[in-house]
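hey so u asked for the seq, here:
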Amino acid sequence: MPRTLPLFVLLILPAVTRAADVSVTVGKSAVEFKAGTQVVARYATAESVAKPYLYPVLAPNGVGVTRAWPVEKGLPGEATSDHVHQKSVWFCHGDVIPEGIALKVKSVNKADKGVDFWSEARDKDGPRHGKIKCVKVGEPKQHAKNHASVETHNEWFTPDGVKIMDEVRVIHFFEGAEGRTFAFDITLKATVCPITFGDTKEGSFGIRVHDGLRPTEKTGAVVTTAEGKVVAPPVKDNMSIWGHPAQWIDYSGKLDGKEVGVAVFDHPSNPKSNWHVRAYGLNAANPFARAHSGFPSQKDGAGPLLKLDKGSEMKLKYAVYAHTGDVKTGKVAEAFEAFKSTK
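ran it, structure tokens below
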């Protein structure tokens, strides 16, 4: 059963009394999230996508906070065209090992022992990556004026089309005056075979921020962790916070002359994540990486790989918070506390 959010959580979301009413609409190839009459996010579920993703993601002032490319190309303020697989907001992992299933198509990363769902690598023979296919979208639920949700069902396939895992993904949408939260309630199910999540930095719940929110001297944007670490320009791409745990990480700056930001939240019920976070705009929480990942926090004894026995399941919970203002005026910490209270 999907986890529900108690009434008190709805009451402590920032300034909900001034927020717009929300709704969710299911279409043939996407799910739309609306605040009032405005579409503020769209969740792509089409057969053609390598994995579902959320784009655009608008802050309450209407400014998009995630990168448009490659979903949309040539938009003002977009400077990069790297990492085609980093589409706005997504969940997957770069090395998922289906125990007992022989893989006919190998990952382009020779260190991988399983299926690469992170990249979208291809060669002359076709895809070298796995596919996460959305096979069912349920009826949206309206929990309160500022809270709606939708349940989706995914199947995970090898590059040559062999199913290895099922997933239920519930997306909760909360609207507040300073920010809006998209909370992902993920249940991974080993319905086909035992699953091992491989040791790679390439994972797992990620966003690619708008190019204007990268911490450069030109943008002046900053990156802040829940623990109070601040990375301000100029910075190297391999930031000091890379490969370390955090409850949340936020990118904030100015876009179109307006202060905005976007944070990723890691729920305390999850296996502890370390962060694959880059100055070029990647912000990803990875609970599966171990010593081979290169993460500094994992090199001195990271523990065993996470596994699922056949018939078992794993629950994970992450969120994206798109806000106006900086990390303080956007009430990032307060929004995380509300998210943290969900069960």
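Helices lie at 7-12, 332-340. The chain has one domain: 7-340.
lmk if thats what u needed
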